[in-house]
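Study both lines:
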Amino acid sequence: MTATAEVRRRRPPERNVPDGETLGGRLRHLKYKASPQQFFAELFEKRWMEPAIPLAMLIAVIVFFSIAAPGFASPANLLSSGAELAEIALVCLGMAVVMISGGIDLSVGSMFGLCNMVAILLITVGGVPVLPAILVTLVAGAILGATNGVIVAYLKARPFLTTLVTLIIFRGVLNLLDLNFSAKTATVFVTDPVWTWFGSGKVAGLPFSFVTLLVVLVLGHLVLSRSRLGWHITAVGASRRAARHAGIRVERVLLVSYVFAGVLCALAGIFYAARLSSASARVGEGLELNVLTAVILGGISLSGGKGTVWRAFIGAATISLLGKGLLLMNVGGEVLQTALAVVLIVAVGLDTKWGKNRGKAIQKTYVNPTLVEYGPLPDIRPGSGSPFEINDRLRGAEAIGHGEVEGPEDVIVDAQGRVYCGTRQGWIVRFSGPDLSQREIFARIGGHPLGLGFDHDGNLIVCVGGMGLYAVDPQGKHRKLSDETGRTWTRLRDDSRLRMADDLDITPDGKVYFSEATTRFDMADWILDGVEGRPNGRLVCYDPATGKTRTVLRDLVFPNGICSCHDGESLLIAQTWLCRILRYWHSGPNQGRLEVFMDNFPGYLDNINRASDGAYWVALNGMRSPAYDLAMRMPTFRRRMMKRIPRDEWLYPSMNHGCVVKVSEQGEVLETYWDPGGESHASITSMREHDGYLYVGGLENNRIGRIKLTGQETALSDVEHSARASTVG
């Protein structure tokens, strides 16, 4: 049996199941475990769901005419429709790029017709071979587009008026050419195989023009979404002033956009000329209105800065197939224009509503609470006799770096007794000197450094929230180790990126095991994972020998603290929202085994670290309350809460009061350390034992606490522990 299979077989359920649970209780858990709401929230979040309304409209058009129009779905009609679609879609793509850059081009119909005429005249009147004639026509289209671009970009003319004037000029030139050469362009016969290929050639059964369109779509998508030019086009369309301040050459970007539109109009005109072997002054007349309708229907914003080539294609396909379907139903041109207007109004109205409410729908449904049941809340009152009862052992803790650090989530001590911590500014701060009063910024990483650990070579390994796993050498120079792991292909959402690497520890073989607390929420919204209570976290392993990162365990409920056990073969994993600790064997005879180590803590767990006497230190960063325990058993209540009241009034886990617990290797509570009222340590997220002292850190604290331990053996530093462990291993 493989290790993965062993984990699946032995893994306990990700909830705290009360003894004597009934069949009805199991069914209730199963009901809340299924999450169609989460599926739809993650589906709506996908960028390719933005054109959902235009795509639905296109599908509706295809289905309707396949039923109502005879011959619409026949192979012959689909092939001819593909060739016609390619021509209008190429023009739409040119218009889309111009509109994304913040402009508009009303002359696309005239450029299409004029380039169609130029191609025919070059071949028939000029006697130019087909291939050079095609290249010259493309250059002519680029010149026409450049004319618009120069006037708009460099002469600062308004795009609407500029292209309206050039529409008239280009159409006038076309009329003059038609007036003088109509007899020679009405019908032409070209026997060149290249011309025939452009007109009726097929690739894998598809018209060559349609295949060319697909190639242009892919290239256009890569340019707009993956290239600097595409980013500049979008930036200029969103805000020319901001783009100029960012150093973007706005005029050049606008010029390129209009040239691109001219070239695509020329390419479409060539395919049209080759398909029909004719040219006239009527070609492209009114096309600009259909093209503008198509790109708006596809969701290209008139204000610029928003849109994709695929959305333009969807709009073009809808308009083209709608026209073809009505033609097959013997509907006149007047009805066609009316139908186009109705479709445009309905589609744009629905798309606007979708665009405005899609974000709200995601916000309302993304956090999807599930059922979590706790055991009886342990009594922590003074004098209760409970192992968790409150004391004041942290109240007199010595303050290190008081007011000089913000949010030291984890602390660690090196072999020289210097104390390190991460801060909210993205720094690693080091305190040194006899009284640890000398503060220096050891490294500037960014993000929020969370878990810390020294490897066998003395490098400081750091989990950085929002960034991944990093290493800092003894000189303070940092480098990225990993920011991704294997994707879960059974999930809609891509979870390959490390969103919230939390805590880590290094095993005797040098591997770095670290937790990713949640794959669904960012660092700023980690508390929402507690409201949801779902198994969104995982245990990840980075192997420095291979440089590879792999996911070891999935579906963990906010795995937070990670600690390599004294046996060198297993790990302790703190699950914050379940208030329990798991034990996972990564090697040895029990490899792959996962079991509950301790359960039903009175608070929410954070980091875990080794104690010098074979025990473990556990941080509680907040305390449970009867009200929130009850809320966790009522997913429907939490869902209604999120929908009906503002977020700042939600019921949250209590994260402003905590303590440090020492537990034995057998999972028994040995002693606790409290700061009643949270006067010095309101939030405790970590603690580290070194040389008879316990150092305490907190995500919301402005200091590192230190208390003297009594009756303790001298603790190994993490560097010494790593060195000894590697020797043993």
Q: What stands out?
A: The chain has two domains: 80-286, 398-728. The mean pLDDT is 87. Residues 80-286 form one domain.
